[in-house]
């Protein structure tokens, strides 16, 4: 199901005048606040716990991706699809060609 969630949006000029109200809204709702400059996204204000959760999920994703790559490398090794390089320079030279 594809849901569209309306996020709070404010123009940068208006946010400067009422930043305290906007920041309190972010704290109260936990929803990000998108600040626009010339009608283009410029800054996103996040509640700290929300930001920490995003970072935690990013770390988990990176770990999962690393595990997938490790397993692929192990499989390639078992299948004899790997080789010994003379040096890191030789690897870089191969990738240039």
Characterise the protein shown here.
The protein is an alpha+beta fold and 97 residues long. The protein folds into 2 domains: 9-46; 50-96, no CATH class. Helices cover 59% and strands 14% of the residues. It contains 4 helices and 3 strands. It has helices spanning 12-17, 19-29, 48-78, 88-96, and strands at residues 9-11, 33-37, 40-45. It has a 3-stranded mixed sheet. Strand 2 and strand 3 form a beta hairpin. The radius of gyration is 23 Å and the shape is elongated. The protein starts with 8 loop residues before the first strand and ends with a helix. The mean pLDDT is 87.
Spell the H/E element sequence.
EHHEEHH
Uncertain segments of ≥5 residues (pLDDT<50)? Answer: none
DSSP summary, beta strand count: 3
The major pleated sheet works out as: 3 strands, mixed
Spatial strand sequence of the major β-sheet: 1-2-3
Q: Quickly give the structural class.
A: alpha+beta
From the N-terminal CA to the C-terminal CA, the straight-line distance is 46 Å
Number of helices: 4
What proportion of the residues form beta strands (DSSP E)? 5-15%
Instruction: Evaluate the radius of gyration.
Output: 23 Å
Provide the residue-averaged pLDDT: 87
Counted up, domains total: 2
């Amino acid at each position: 199901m594809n849901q569209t969630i309306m996020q709070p949006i404010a123009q940068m000029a208006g946010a400067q005048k009422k930043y305290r109200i906007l920041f309190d809204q972010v704290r109260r709702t936990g929803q990000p606040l998108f600040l626009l400059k010339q009608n283009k996204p410029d800054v996103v204000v996040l509640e700290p716990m929300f930001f920490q959760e995003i970072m935690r999920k990013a770390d988990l994703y990176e770990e999962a991706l690393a595990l997938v790559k490790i397993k692929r490398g192990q499989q390639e090794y078992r299948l004899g699809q790997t080789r010994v390089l003379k040096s890191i320079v030789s690897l870089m030279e191969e990738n240039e060609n």
